[in-house]
Specification:
There is one protein chain. With about 240 residues, the chain is mainly alpha-helical. The protein contains five helices and four strands. It has helices at about 10-80, 85-95, 120-135, 135-140, 150-170; strands spanning about 170-175, 185, 205-210, 215-220. α1 crosses α2 (about 85-95) and α3 (about 120-135) packs across α5 (about 150-170).
Length: about 240
C-alpha cells in the first residue's frame, strides 16, 4: 500500500504561514513608520504655522508703518503739485542728493545789552595792588629818565607785591592748556570772548593755527569786604610824616 501524496494545498501551507508571518511583521513595521511620520508631520505643521504667524505679524507691522506714512505722502504729493517752492525743496532732497532741505533762516539774535558794572571791585583791587606792590606809583612815574637797571629794580618790587595780591585774592588759570607755539584748532561755535583768532582770518571755522598766548581766566575772586563808610575812590591815602 503506497502513501497518498499530499495535495498542493497541503504543500503550500508552510509557505502560506511564512507569508502570513512576514505580512504581519511588515504591517507592524509599516504602522511604526506611519506613527513616526505622523508625529513628524504634526511637528512640522506646528512649526510651519508658527513661522507663518511670525511672517504675518511682520507683514502686518510693515503694512501699518506704510499706512501711517500715507497721510504725509498724500500731503507732500498734493503740496508739490500746487507749490513750486515745495517741489523745488523735494527736488533738492531726492534728485540732487541733498541730505536735507535748506533750513529756514533763524531770526537774528538780539543785540547784546551792555551792562554797567560798578567800579567798587576794580577800585578795591587797584588799592590792594598799590598797597602791596606800589603798582600805581610805578605806572604814574615818568621812567624815561631812569636807566634800564633802575627800572628793572623797581619792576621787581612791583612784580613781587602784585603777585602776592593775585595769589591771595584771585584764582586764575590759562584758557588753553596747550603749550604756547603748539598747533590748536578753533572749532565752529568757539567763544570769541575766550579765544581770539588773529592774523589772516578768512572763511568760516574751524581755524587751525599756532597758539601765541594761552590767555587767562578768573576762577575765583576773594576781594575783601569794604565798609560802606569807606570811600573806595581813595586808592592810597596821602601819607604825612610828623
Amino acid at each position: 500500500m503506497t502513501d497518498e501524496k499530499p495535495s498542493l494545498w497541503q504543500r503550500l501551507q508552510p509557505l502560506l504561514q511564512d507569508v502570513k508571518r512576514l505580512s504581519a511583521a511588515g504591517w507592524k513595521l509599516a504602522l511604526y513608520w506611519l506613527g513616526i511620520a505622523a508625529r513628524e508631520l504634526t511637528r512640522l505643521a506646528a512649526a510651519g504655522w508658527k513661522l507663518a504667524r511670525d511672517w504675518l505679524a511682520i507683514a502686518a507691522r510693515a503694512t501699518w508703518i506704510v499706512l501711517k506714512r500715507l497721510p504725509i505722502a498724500s500731503y507732500s504729493f498734493a503740496r508739490a503739485l500746487f507749490s513750486a517752492d515745495y517741489a523745488q525743496r523735494l527736488t533738492d532732497v531726492y534728485i540732487d542728493g541733498a541730505s536735507s532741505p535748506a533750513p529756514a533762516k533763524a531770526p537774528p539774535a538780539p543785540a547784546a545789552v551792555l551792562q554797567e558794572s560798578g567800579p567798587d571791585s576794580a577800585l578795591v583791587l587797584l588799592s590792594l595792588l598799590q598797597q602791596e606792590g606800589r603798582f600805581l606809583d610805578f605806572l604814574q612815574e615818568q621812567v624815561a629818565g631812569y636807566s634800564d637797571q633802575e627800572v628793572g629794580a623797581a619792576a621787581r618790587v612791583v612784580h613781587d607785591g602784585c603777585q602776592r595780591v593775585l595769589k591771595e585774592h584771585l584764582s586764575i588759570a590759562p584758557v588753553r592748556d596747550e603749550p604756547e607755539g603748539s598747533q590748536v584748532t578753533l572749532k565752529k561755535g568757539f567763544d570769541p570772548a575766550a579765544e581770539r583768532p588773529t592774523g589772516q582770518v578768512v572763511g568760516e571755522p574751524p581755524f587751525t593755527g599756532a597758539l601765541v598766548h594761552r590767555g587767562w581766566r578768573a576762577l575765583e575772586v576773594r576781594l575783601p569786604q569794604v565798609a560802606s563808610s569807606r570811600d573806595v575812590r581813595i586808592l592810597a591815602p596821602a601819607e604825612v610824616e610828623l
